[in-house]
Amino acid sequence: MSSKAGMKQHANPGGQSRSSPYAGGIEVHDAYAAGKRTIVSVDNVVREYRVGGDSIFALRGVSVKIYAGEYLSIMGPSGSGKSTLFNMIGGLDTPTSGTVSVQGVTLAQLSRVEQARLRNRCIGYIFQSYNLVPVMTARQNVALPMLLGGMDVDEANEKAGELLKAVELGHRMDHRPEELSGGQQQRVAIARSFANDPVIILADEPTGNLDTKTGEAIIDRLSHLSRERGVTIISATHDHKMLAVSDRVVTIRDGLVDKVELRDQLNIQLGSIGDAGGSH
Prior knowledge:
Elements: H1 26-33, E1 38-51, E2 54-67, E3 71-75, H2 82-89, E4 97-102, E5 105-106, H3 112-122, E6 123-127, H4 138-148, H5 153-166, H6 182-193, E7 200-204, H7 212-229, E8 232-236, E9 248-253, E10 256-262, H8 263-275
Parallel strand pairs: 3-8, 3-9, 6-7, 7-8
Antiparallel strand pairs: 1-2, 1-4, 4-5, 9-10
Helix pairs in contact: 4-5, 4-6, 5-6, 6-7
């Protein structure tokens, strides 16, 4: 089945075909997709690993379209294929079959150098472990992607300062990572992800190493910057707090799209989660 919503269920390798994953029916999702520009297209992607004489399928035929300016969360249990799909979108892994396109460019058709240029120009990354350079200050860490992209040093430092002020770290620009809290380090990482004015931010478990209060602050800051700058956020996460700011959530299970939910549907379920007791 093909639709504007851009996700099809395929007969999957090593398993049975599944019913539609669209919560509320395909028509609801077609209405959501109407008029939106596709920025990432994943079409029938399979990722097979060979272990000895056995085939292990991390992805079994996943198709999804991601739209410009939306906040999409990819969720799923450990081993579901969530991280593999995330890496495919970022060009960090290659499909066994199927295609991944970013802004209309099929990643597999690019050389490694061309893929690296596209990532530097179009995609910002936020990692669970921050991945800051320990000997550099916050300003230097944020300026680094701009310098690698060929920007003048003074211009890069000035822009880095503006981005750090946007995440409320204007007073910590000259501090190294060891002098910053976990939440402050993640805010530096957020500022760095916006350095080259990307169209897409890939956030890999961005609250995974943070306490609940700090995690909520990071989610709010990331959501605010996304809306303010019109950037597409794609987050791989286990954190249910992400649901409150997500336009859609795609749940991956056993290498397949198990469920696709819109924000309104998520709000109802978030209420039931909260009522069921406990924060997540």
